[in-house]
Each structure stands twice: as C-alpha cells, then as structure tokens.
Fold this sequence. Notes:
- By secondary structure, this protein is an alpha+beta fold.
- The chain has helices at 2-32, 35-68, 82-101, 137-140, 142-150, 191-201, 228-237, 239-248, 295-333, 349-363, 382-389, 394-399, 408-416, 419-436, 446-464; strands spanning 113-118, 123-126, 154-160, 165-175, 181-190, 207-213, 216-222, 252-256, 259-265, 276-282, 468-474, 479-485.
- It folds into 2 domains: 36-283, Beta-Lactamase (2-Layer Sandwich); 382-485, no CATH class.
- A 5-stranded antiparallel beta sheet has the order 2-1-5-4-3. Strands 7-6-10-9-8 form a 5-stranded antiparallel beta sheet.
- Helix 1 (2-32) runs antiparallel to helix 9 (295-333) and helix 2 packs across helix 6.
- It starts with a helix and ends with a strand.
Amino acid sequence: MRNKIIAVNAVIVLIVGLLSYVLMRSTIVAAASNMEQLLADAKHDAQGASARIQLDGLRAERWLAAKASEAGMSDPLSKASPSARGDAATAQADSVMVAAKSAAAFEGRVPSVVELVDVNGKIVGRNGSNLSRGDDLAAIYPALKAALTSGQSGSDIWFNKERNDNYLASFAALHDDQGKVAGAIVIGTSLNDVLSRASDATTGRGLALAVPNAGTWQVVARSGNATNAFVDAVTATATDTIKMAVASGHASAIRAGDAIAASAPLEGIADGKRAAIIAEAPASRVANAETLPNPIFGVAALGVLLVIVGGWLLGNYIDRPINMLEEGLLAILNGQSDKRFELEHAELGGLAFRIDQLLNQLMGVEEDTTDEEGRPSKAPTAADYRDAMSVDDRARAASSVADGELDAAAVQRLAAEGGDGYYTRIYGEYIAAKKALGEQTDHISREAFVTRIQGMEREAAQKYGKPVRYQVKATGKEVILIAVPLP
C-alpha cells in the first residue's frame, strides 16, 4: 500500500509539474519574443539616441555661437604674418578649450579638439599644437564650407582616416569688425564618447554610428558597451536597413545576430544623409526566456520527495494496524482462541473493536462491558431482557417444593396472591435484582414486564398441565425466573 500511495501521488506531482513547465514556458516565450513589438521598441531606442546626439550638437552650436560673438574672438585671423596668426589662433583655441571644459553645454564632456579656420576653411591654429596648420577642412567637409558661406553655425560628423578625424564637430562663424565672415571656430568631440554618453542617457545598450563608404555603410564609432559581435552583425546584415532609414528619414529595424539592430538618421547633423545611428536592442524582453521556467523541475522534484516522505509515514500509519490485525487473525486460526485486539487507532480502532465483539459471539465468551470502576458501559439490549425473562429451569420447577426451595405454605401463599399484587411484587423484585447486578433497567416498563410474564405463564401451564406462577431468583451473575406449578 505504501508504494502505491507514493507512486500515485508522485505521478500526479510530475504531471502537474510538466504541464506547469510547458504552459509557463510557452507563455513567457510568447510574451518575451513578440518580434513586432520588439522591432517597434528598437526603433524608438534608435530615434531616442539620434535625438540625444542631435541635441548635444545643437547645444554645442549655441555655445560656440555665443562664444564667437565675444569681442576679440576673430582677432587672431587678422594678424599680419602666418606665424603670428597661427600662434594667436592656438592661444585662442586653448582658451576656448578651457572654457568648454566647464561649460554647462558639454555637461562635463571634454572636447577632443578646438580649431580656428579662416574664411576659406583652412586651419589657422588648433589647441595645444601647431600641427595641421593650413589643412583645407572646407574641401573635406562640405557642411563647414556651407557655414562659412552663410555665416551660420552647424554640426557634422567628421570622419577621415588620413587625418584621424572621428568627431562630432560643431562650428560657428567668426565675424570681423565690419560684420563679414572672417572664419569659424570648430570644436570636436570624440564620436565614441558621444555615443557612450547617448547610450547612458537613453537605451543603456550598445550604440554604433555608420557613415556611407563606397556604396555601403561603414561603422566608424561605437559606445563603450557595444560588443564586437553586434558591430559585426550590423556590418553583415544591417546595411540595407541603414540605407532605408536614411532614405526615408524614419527608423527601421532588423534582426542582427542575437540582437535587433535599429537604425535612425541624424537629421539635424549636416544634411541628414551623412550618418546614421544604429541602436542595439535585445531579441527578447526577458533574458534566457526559454530556460526561465526550469526551476519548476526543481519544485516538482521537491514535491516528489515530499510525496515519498509523506507516503512512507502514511503507509506506516495504515500498514501497522492492518499487519497487527492480520497476525492476530492468523493466531486465532491457529488455535489461540483467547486472542483479542487492543488497538488504539483513529481509523481502524473501531474495526478492531467490532472484530473482538464478533469473536466473543462466535466463541460464546461473555463480553465485559463494565468500565474501570465496574460500572456497566452500555445498557442491556432488548435481546438481553428477553433472554433473562425466558429462563425456564424445568427441573428446578418440578422439584422446587421437594428440595425445600419453596415449602407448601409458600406455594399456597403464591397461589392465593392477588393478580395485580403478584405482578407488582415480582416486577419490583426483578428490577431490584437487576440493579443489584449493576444492570440498566430504565428500558423495562411494568406493562411490558407483565405482558411477558403472562405469556410465559400460559406457555408453562400447557407444559405442566396446571396453573403456573413465577418466582424471582438471583444467581449472582444473572437474574432468572423460576416457574412454580400451583396445586
């Protein structure tokens, strides 16, 4: 029985655990891997990062425009000799760099380079160095040339391998005393730093920046949290998506390796066609969604263990009394007729008691129904009452006078006794004798007693051929009624 209890309950636990795992896994995977929603979220991430970079460029432009309007900013460009212009421009660039480090517009970012260019777009001087003087930036970067022509500020992505340029460049025109454009001041921040800052402020995941190159798009910068695997996947699979985003002006997304790559154009940078932001987004809302329900197996295993322990305890609780009953019955079959069961058990104790009663009846053993103080524990049944009153000791009745139990005078008095007085007397003697033996008599009424006695008298009169009356006799263990034939 123990093994059956354990097996059935263990199978139930395993089935419930397996169904829970299947349902949980399918629900989590479906919710976590809704590709349509994931692609939409990735597009929002790319648009947010693009907007952040454009905002950084715009803030730098405004700060530079205010700086360019300060008195004396264009003075280095009016020096007489090239060397004087270069030295003055370098000193001016150094002062701008110092101011930019503490400017709120850059929020603690340290610009990589500050340069002053003349009206033709050639470098006059840069901070901390006399290198690159005379380089024609306007020929390389059309957005700078357009700003010098219009006298407006602007921003652009500067990437040039030969010059080692990799900047988000912001520039503002410098004007001479007559209000003519005399040149421009340029400040550049490393693209990697710009992307890392944008990632921290928006998605918190990898960002990359791509620029067009020979009919395709090349990743030229990335944030510090962008992995090589993501950059490789973008290069391999996301070129068409980048082209689509730049051409349409809207974000687009595609599955790239183990992640999603979403592209968005930098519309506020130059003409909006020179760079695109690629944002990395997870291909699932929940990491390891397929393995997330695995702890259910552990819970199911714990359930099986508890079933084994509980089944073992329950089996012992049931098997012990059953084995006791089986061994006892076997002993009775082998001749131990006095074997009885004294079993205290909530479920099987009643069965053991009934078996004891059955054995007592089958073997004619009188059952002890008294409590520890000798009081009867149950009332005699109607059968007990009829058996007590049906005692008919014929031999004793025939010889009662001869043996001296009843003398002739006593028999004469019994015969002369009135009917009502006679029945009242023997009823009282019968009840008193029963109570003396500790038996219950509440169920014996006078009417039932008299009716029974009268019936016994008629039966006895037919046997003896003469009228019969009864005398109450207590034997010590029971109360009997002795038939007394009348003369």
